[in-house]
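REVIEWER CHECKLIST
Item 1: Sequence provided? yes
Item 2: Single chain? yes
Item 3: Sequence as submitted:
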Amino acid sequence: MSARTALGFGFQGKMCIHPKQIGTVNRVFTPDDAEVASAERVVAAFATAEAAGSAAIQLDGKFVDYPILYRAQRVLERSRPSARRGSSDDESSSGSARRRYSARFV
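Item 4: Structure as written out by the authors:
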């Protein structure tokens, strides 16, 4: 199964059997700037609403409640540099074999 297909099915990661796959898999599963910006807006808007006593809001015409908030928080967690260990394609030329085989687990 390709990394994009796995992402489309809702998986949060993919097993790699060769070090050269790590960079591609990490790129596919790392949120892009638009996803991060949207997640930041959801978290900020929900925090404001929650402080006012609301557990559900509408943001950009979409219903946002706790499951959507939790998904946004996971996007932000995956976007942090520490979650992207092993994302460089040129790792095979530097470092130990153990480090080259590192991948992030979500």
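Item 5: Key structural point noted by reviewer: Helices lie at 3-8, 21-29, 33-51, 66-79, 97-100.
Item 6: Recommendation: ____
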